[in-house]
Amino acid sequence: MFPTPIEKSSRTWQLSYQALLPAALVLWLLPLIAVAVFSIKPDADFTTGNYWGLPTSFEFVNNYGKVFFQSDMPRYLMNSVLITVPTMIGCVVLSSMTGFALGVYKFRSNIWIFFMFVAGNFVPFQILMVPVRDLTLDMGLYNTKTGLVFFHIAFQTGFCTLFMRNFIKALPFDLIEVARVEGVAEWKIFWHVVLPLMKPALAAMAVLIFTFIWNDYFWAVVLTQGAESQPVTAGITSFNAQYRAAYHLMSAGSIVAALPPVAMFFLMQKHFIAGLTLGAVK
Amino acid sequence: MFHKTKSVLATLAATAALTTGAFAGSHAKLSGDLVIFSDMSNPAPRAVMEGMVERFGEMHPDLNIELTVIDREAYKTQIRNFLTANAPDVANWYAANRMRPYVDAGLFEDISDVWEDPELADLASTKGAMTLDGKQWGVPYTYYQWGVYYRKDIYEELGLNEPATFEEMKSNCQTILDSGRKCYTIGTKFLWTAGGWFDYLNMRTNGYDYHAKLTGGEIPWTDEGVAKTFANWRELIDMGAFIDNHTAYSWQESLPFIVSGEAAAILKGNFAVPPLREAGLDDSKLDFYQFPSINPDVELAEDAPTDTFHIPSGAKNKEAAKAFLKFVVSAENQTLINNGDNLGQLPVNAKSSVDDDKFLKEGFEMLSSNSPGGVAQFFDRDAPAEMAKVAMEGFQEFMVKPDNLDKIIDRLDRAAQRIYK
Questions:
Q1: Which domain of life is it from (chain B) (predicted)?
Q2: Per the CB < 8 Å rule, is A243 touching B278?
Q3: CB contact, 8 Å: A129 with chain B?
């Protein structure tokens, strides 16, 4: 098996592995560590060039206090929640139904409809920038959270359908046949037979979509403008001042903005890994 | 004393009565919504903007003012969007050529009639910057000076004086270099800082009018005058006046060099002062001088970028918008919003008073009495955006590889022929 599991390698290699791993980890996390340290430094540390040293004064309360009480950060965070959660629910609901239809029913052009969903994933989303912006404008959804939610649901459903359809395809079809023989209505089969079996996939997908949407920057900048609708990823730039960037506040803001997806990852680690591999096997 | 105050009050009351009389018509009528989009997003300017809205709102209780503050950088991209799609009644922008794309596209309202108001006669110094095609397209609300901010303590240690000529500037620089320091810190990563050096060297070598014609596309980059400017610049570069590896730094990242004393000065706008003070350079260590004269035959001219308010042509409540613009430039409001607790910059109204700050006072003095040549906006506001980008890339390259000058000039000339066509 490649790579050889570490337990089976020689003792010296195991030791050097154990020694190198923390070093590599620190190196890899260095930018993140720098951001974390900067978030508790005073502004003057940037001007004096104290990038990597210890903070000259400990400004944790001050910086984070400013982020939470003197900026629009709480509002941006709330916007992020109001954009991410509806998108997550919308995607899961829609794609479990499309996945069911494409996975269970044999009809002509089934495969073509499925391909269309898949093909949607191959469209580089940047080229949609101008048409989508015009579309939301015409629909009166420009600069609203609703507009962003609709677009995200529409765009993410392609990936989710692929994911769901493959998962349902892998379920034992006999279960559905048996239910049909018993005369159970199709929507009841979906609700009582298939949906309970899909729970791991639903959880994995919800976690994935949450992180995708929370971390989205591109569409947040294209479709919204201002604190009333922008999510936190776009809101962090509001610490960019007219002449200079408030790096200490931006760092604190980034840490706050990064916490929900990180927390999500650690709490739902099992589902997250399942989500990344589920679609890949079939 | 008491009597004096009284008479002042009486005068004030009389003026107020007159002003109210003049504004009475608009006072009574202003109603509906006034939508303002602002890029004044950092804490101090934001408070200024909110304060102005509040005070204007108190003057016009029937008016419903909606203020949206957008991050300054994001605003630069969003303005194209909202001017066409979702136009507010008032929007922030910049003076001179920076407003040309929107003026040419018919997105900004011609407000020459506002400028005919006698009150605006006190804005004469910035009128030129607001004028395109003989009409005015907005009002200024603040500006600030550029110049050389230097380490007073280092100059004193080496026995140097503020230079008045290019020769003195170079001999000072040599002394500083001999003491193991660099003369100027600069961070050219985002290009525009090099534009500041070009502005000053070109205005001092060839004069304001020449500079305006060059950025306006009337003089080709292959002209002899440009070559002289670059030759002067090259003298400084060849001396090693600038810090090494400056292309790796943003302007903020170039500040540690002057704070630590590795470099003795920086050519910058007045916005560099607050971070330098925060970093420990008090008035005994930091001082300011006007960029010295190079060619004695040309008059001194300065860079003083001006920030502005405009009325988009798609605005719905233009009457209220014009009243707001007049309110913004009034002497009283100008004194208030530009003081040290607020913007900490220079008021645009000649009748306003300047805050009690060493650098603001020197700057105001310099701009009002020692800048006979004119006031430029800054390279990337005077030249069209596309030309500014190509040119500033050229300046950056020149500062690193001065031998490439011929190639750079050739490139700029070709770009100019395409852009100014």
A1: Bacteria
A2: no
A3: no
